[in-house]
Amino acid sequence: MPGPPDRPSSHLARLDARTADQDRTLRAMLELEVALENAAPGREPAWRAGVLTALAALDEATNDEHANATSPDSLLSDIKRTQPRLRTRVRGLRAQYEQLRQAIVSIRSELADPDEGAGDYADVRQRLSWTLTALRHQRARESDLIYEAYFDAFRTDLNTDAIR
After folding, report:
1. Would you give the DSSP letter of residue 4?
2. Domain presence at residue 135
3. Based on the structure, what is the number of domains in the chain?
């Protein structure tokens, strides 16, 4: 019985690029969580500045991740091109990610304007908490899709292949 088909190194290179993007986004998410946990009452301007700095890093990381994931040579583009049954899920993931990007940009814009409800730090914390949870959910769904696509294409587990 023949083994799995040869996998071009480009698949693993695309996976490495995706992992690097996700690592950068995860670091930015953790920085934002730390900033959100800082005390806000009586020190709203300092709290807002810390959250804005962390949110700017998350905005940049997710913007880069989104740009890389939508490029024609990305892993998701490859899946969409080569595995027709998964195209709808790729489109759905991309649409959801774009909505998350819009939420990040919107909240960042709100916080940058000190006259626009920035005093309600509990609401900002809640909204950003939801956004971070949605980002985690998005990442898990994307990982599931990539592993499913890889297994379907090569009949082997991606982790097993990466070890080889």
Report:
1. P
2. yes
3. 1
CA 2 – CA 110 distance, rounded (Å):
58
| Alpha-carbon gap, residue 148 to 7, rounded angstroms | 15
| Contact by Cβ (8 Å): 22, 37 | no
- What is the span of the domain harbouring residue 100? 9-163
Q: Are 72 and 79 in contact (CB under 8 A)?
A: no
Distance CA 14, CA 7 (A): 12
Q: What is the pLDDT of residues 61-77, one digit of tens each?
A: 999 999 988 999 888 99
Answer for the pair 145, 86: CB distance below 8 angstroms, yes or no. Answer: yes
- CATH assignment of the domain containing 20: 1.20.120
CA dihedral sign of residues 50, 44, 116, 26 = positive
- Judge contact between 135 and 28, C-beta under 8 A: no
pTM of the model: 0.81
Q: What is the pLDDT of residue 8?
A: 56
Identify the H or E element spanning 45.
helix 44-70
